[in-house]
């Protein structure tokens, strides 16, 4: 039973109702007397009621925002752990820890649906490790080394908090890409899927934190170099794009604007345009006001020369609090940068809305990438 499915939500509601009825009509009268046993029983009953009545709410919130894609993710029992480098290999770079088991369209044949590698990227410059899934389309698997260099590459980032699995199970990036290629709407591309949280549990907003984790360096330098070297892909930034939702969308747009020598196209779905400051982030800039401004995307567009990048922003007129800033962002883009947009009449900061945007955004992004 999927954690984000209707059956799980309905089952949790039934259990909650049954628990409430049992507590009122059976358990509570029997535990109403004095004595330590009765008191402990009432405490246990209250805890059980809290858990069973709270679970439907948690499942509903998870279903709306897509934080976790499986029960194992919620219970922290399933994680892509780094694996030790084999003897004689470099300490840094990309290490494949296994192959993700999946099916689509009734097939599990890599020649039909491609292959998804579970990998660990060990940053040579940043010193950070990040776990990712890499979807290699079937066309890549049967291509020659020279042909593989012409495949575009898309880095897909989730929001915060989240897990890498949501990009396959909820956002369905590989499935969307396969459908688009089969429909002739997009050419095959290699997908690198991960969360922006490479220094957990801190939400670093893809910032090189002074005296802390160098997350921008990881995504702008370490990851492209490691992926390209391992899979024989282009290092031409014109062949690399990045997209994401929420915090991942902010990271995507920022990486293109701050590191155009790594990514020449980016798409931000429900993106913020400034780095947050809260309990999860802490002070990301060490009190440096200039550094904070440089990570403010609206300030960059208005105050600095714009690089030759293609940008896409997606929002909704109703349901998205960042819609006014999205309009400001669109209006601030100047040549040689270019901007496109997806604006829904209504939506929200949730995966149902993002799933309406991902197919068009992915096709747009791959269409802007050049590898010839």
Query: pLDDT average, as an integer?
Result: 87
Q: Give the biggest beta sheet.
A: 9 strands, mixed
Over the alpha carbons, how many angstroms does the gyration radius reach? Answer: 23 Å
Please estimate the helix content. 40-55%
- Alpha-beta classification: alpha/beta
From the spread of the alpha carbons, the general shape counts as globular
Along the chain, the helix and strand elements come as HHHEHEEHHEHHEHEHEHHEHEH
> How many helices in DSSP terms?
14
Description of the molecule:
- This protein is α/β, with parallel strands linked by helices and 372 residues long.
- The chain has helices spanning 6-30, 36-65, 71-74, 110-113, 138-141, 145-148, 166-169, 173-182, 215-231, 247-258, 289-294, 297-303, 323-332, 351-367; strands spanning 93-99, 115-122, 129-136, 153-157, 190-194, 240-245, 265-269, 310-318, 338-346.
- A hairpin with a 6-residue loop joins strand 2 and strand 3.
- Helix 12 (297-303) packs parallel to helix 13.
- The chain is globular, with a radius of gyration of 23 Å.
Features:
372 residues; alpha/beta; nine-stranded mixed sheet; 9 strands; 41% helix; globular
């Amino acid at each position: 039973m999927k954690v984000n499915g209707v059956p799980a939500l309905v089952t949790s509601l039934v259990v909650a109702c049954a628990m409430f009825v049992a507590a009122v009509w059976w358990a509570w009268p029997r535990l109403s007397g004095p004595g330590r046993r009765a008191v402990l029983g009432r405490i246990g009953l209250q805890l059980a009621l809290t858990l069973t009545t709270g679970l439907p709410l948690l499942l509903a919130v998870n279903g709306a925002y897509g934080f976790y894609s499986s029960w194992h993710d919620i219970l922290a029992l399933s994680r892509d752990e780094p694996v030790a480098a084999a003897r004689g290999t470099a300490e840094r770079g990309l290490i494949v820890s296994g192959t993700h088991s999946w099916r689509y369209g009734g097939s599990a044949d890599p020649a039909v649906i491609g292959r998804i590698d579970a990998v660990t990227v060990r940053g040579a410059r940043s010193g950070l490790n990040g776990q990712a899934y890499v979807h290699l389309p079937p066309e890549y698997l049967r291509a020659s080394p020279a042909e593989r260099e012409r495949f575009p590459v898309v880095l897909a980032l989730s929001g915060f908090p989240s897990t890498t699995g949501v990009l396959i199970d909820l956002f369905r990036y590989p499935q969307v890409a396969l459908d688009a290629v089969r429909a002739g709407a997009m050419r095959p591309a290699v997908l690198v899927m991960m969360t922006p949280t490479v220094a957990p549990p801190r939400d670093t907003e893809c910032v090189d934190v002074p005296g802390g984790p160098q997350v921008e360096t990881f995504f702008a330098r370490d990851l492209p170099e490691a992926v390209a070297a391992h899979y024989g892909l282009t290092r031409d930034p014109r062949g690399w794009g990045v997209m994401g939702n929420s915090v991942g969308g902010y990271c995507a747009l920022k990486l293109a604007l701050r590191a155009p020598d790594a990514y020449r196209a980016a798409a931000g779905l429900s993106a913020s345009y400034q780095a947050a400051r809260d309990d999860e982030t802490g002070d990301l800039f060490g009190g440096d006001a200039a550094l904070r401004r440089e990570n403010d995307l609206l300030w960059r567009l208005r105050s600095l020369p714009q690089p030759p990048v293609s940008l896409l922003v997606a929002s909704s007129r109703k349901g998205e609090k960042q819609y006014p800033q999205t309009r400001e962002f669109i209006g601030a883009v100047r040549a040689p940068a270019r901007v496109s947009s997806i604006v829904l009449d209504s939506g929200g900061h949730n995966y149902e809305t993002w799933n309406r945007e991902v197919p068009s955004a992915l096709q747009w992004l791959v269409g802007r990438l050049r590898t010839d």
